[in-house]
Design brief:
By secondary structure, the chain is of the alpha+beta class. The protein has one domain: tt1808, chain A (Alpha-Beta Complex). Helix content is 17%, strand content 30%. The chain has three helices and twelve strands, in the order H-E-E-H-E-E-E-E-E-H-E-E-E-E-E. The strands form four sheets. Strands 3-6-7-8-9-10 form a six-stranded mixed sheet, sandwiched between helices. The longest helix has 14 residues. It starts with 8 loop residues before the first helix and ends in a 14-residue tail after the last strand. 29% of the residues are buried.
């Protein structure tokens, strides 16, 4: 019996972007089709963190939605959002997938991906040396900010919808957590 084929970029490069799986340790993982709530949270978060390029921000950021990032020859991921400090990456490459590890990644949790994002992807991001990882939980209306400490994640903070505050690693940029989520539904008849 032969060895299992380890997938690489060559195995998916000719597929349409919407059909490209993530590749983890040489195995393909289908990307879940996001729900409308997921897309809204990604869009709202992008709208807030893209301002990390303002004049008061020391070195600025490149922020990308759903980039393909190669973390190794047999590992390509597509975080919901990723950011690169301009001081480390003065120009955003046109490469696809990107071969430069991000300085920040964010995953918006959904029922079908929460375990995968918290376990598998968290481990991959730590091994790649990505310094900051955010987990945004629309169901709980929370943003969990994790900072890499050696080879392990340390909880930098967990922020709820009532908070408007600067969140690391974006310095003075304030993130309005409550604006990331859809308004709460009123109970029927009320």
């Amino acid at each position: 019996m032969g060895e299992a084929h380890l997938w690489t970029w060559k195995d998916i490069m000719h597929l349409p972007e919407t059909e490209q799986p993530e590749i983890i340790d040489g195995k393909p993982y289908a990307r879940a089709t996001p729900r409308s709530t997921h897309g809204r949270v990604v869009g709202e978060l992008y709208a807030q963190v893209r301002h990390a390029n303002g004049p008061s921000v020391r070195d600025g950021w490149w922020i990308s939605i759903d980039p393909s990032v190669r973390l190794g020859p047999h590992t390509i991921v597509g975080p919901d959002l990723a950011g690169w400090r301009k001081s480390r990456l003065p120009e955003l490459p046109e490469d696809w997938p990107l071969d430069v590890r991000p300085d920040w990644v964010c995953e918006v949790l959904s029922p079908g991906t929460a375990r995968y994002d918290r376990k598998t992807k968290a481990a991959l991001y730590a091994m790649a040396g990505i310094p900051w990882y955010w987990l945004v939980d629309p169901a709980e209306r929370l943003v969990e900010v994790l900072e890499l400490d050696g080879d392990r994640w340390r909880i930098h903070g967990c922020f709820d919808e009532d908070q408007r505050l600067p969140l690391s690693p974006f310095g003075e940029l304030e993130v309005v957590v409550g604006e990331l989520f859809l308004p709460r539904r009123l109970p029927a008849g009320g």
